Amino acid sequence: MSSPGILYVTMRPNDDLPPAQFHEWYNNEHGPTRLRLPQIFANGLRYRSTDSLDPPFLAAYDVTHMPHLLTPTYTCLRANRSPREAETIGQVKVDRRFYDLVSAKSSPDFTPVESLSDEEAEGSVLVSVEITLNNFEGAEAAYTEFLLGEHVDMLSRIPGWRRTRLFRTSVIEDVGETKLLALHEYSKENGLGGPEHLAAASSPLRNEIFAKYVHSKNRRTYELFYVFGPGPRDLHSLSDLPAGTPKFVSSGDETPTLTTTTTSPGPDASIASYIQTADSLTIPYLLEGNPAPDAPVVAFSNSLLTSLHMWDPLVAIIKAQRPDLKILRYDTRGRHALPQPPKPATVEILAGDIKALLDALRITKLHALIGVSMGGATTLKFALEYPSYLSRFIACDFNVTSSAANTEAWKERTALAESEAGKGIEKLAGLTVGRWFHPATVEKKPDVTEWMTRIVAENDVEGFKYGCQALWDYDLKPAMGGCEVPGLLVVGDGDAKGALVRAMEGFKGLVGAKGVELKIVPEAGHLPMSESPEAFWEAVREFI
Question: Region labeled Disordered — which residues (predicted)?
Fold first, then answer.
């Protein structure tokens, strides 16, 4: 049987600890590390005081089962702190408390804070009341009955009241004194201080209970300012770090892995980290660009066999031309090792991976999603399946249906990659890039050809084997007419020697009620954004 509760942590940073260092560490390292344990932590919320009292910061984590906090899964987080965390936490006065949940009552339309968007959640009010009772028999029962009876009923009449929960010092807490903790949650616009609140705070029963049973009361008021997800995303604090601050690498001096987080501070701040999907796939991502929390986000979905770095030339242009945008890239399923036992990818699964990434980063709506090849099919599928997450999309160099001939070609390519104990991927890389790229690219830009060949050759062979099966049997045509998201199609003029231009001309009128425009990039093949980034940007800049 589960024993839910809360980890309740108040903090007072030393005066000489730069605020950006404190917040960046907490938001990009400490909090996400805990939210990557969903079996333990249901959420992670940060509050700042509005009562001018110390300590000024509160972090609250709902815990699914309090005894989990005694297991190595959790205790090892504190025992194995990074040097950066140890150095920062040494400059913060921390008071950690464990409380067991006693009871909860909420408004009929209550939604947990973590399920709200940042815009909806930030500014939510928390009133925290810690009670120490007199050592009288029946004191706890009497106070609990009052709180969950009359008091909550009267609080529920206050405009903006959302929920009241009662906790008591956890049985796992090694302290002699038991305290009760009442957490009252309100929307940012509320009636605190109004007549309903004053009535609840001064009823005859309330006065009687406090006079007889309550030894002391500590009341604090807070406002919510940050909600954790399992993916680090705080570019704002990272960009505000003092000049000369070194980058943070979670793996220390060891070789970075798929589960390494690297935060690079300064005006060109970036976060390279990862999320895990519901089926335990690790997806690396890179977040950069405009550091403002509310900056519009453009995301990119790469092609099969490539990585998030295939977008490097285009991203450099976008960062220069559109500094208002935040940029999110990730390695699509099949680039790296797969969970065991592996299973074939589908276009539906690939679209779901994007949703999982956005949810982990608490991005409720993209300004744009841009995908190419398998990423193009994924982009259109995402627009069809999750239209509320997307303002517009650009799908490049792909087809909306698979074919038997294509399936056989992928099987042959898989066999080549697996040959020579997996060394065949290097042969496949050369053949693939030669097939993808326009003759002008191969002739005039040998450095680009070599760069892309290296990217392809570094692909995980098993990942490719199961990832390419997303292209074996799919058909987006039946749903395309119902697409509600504005879109643009782009293709290199030499892709498949012009065959893909003709194919995309054939289905551009079937996307949405009125069809979409098709832009053709000259002297480019299958990856026009990598081969001719300036020409690709010219084709899409007005749409973005």
Answer: 246-269
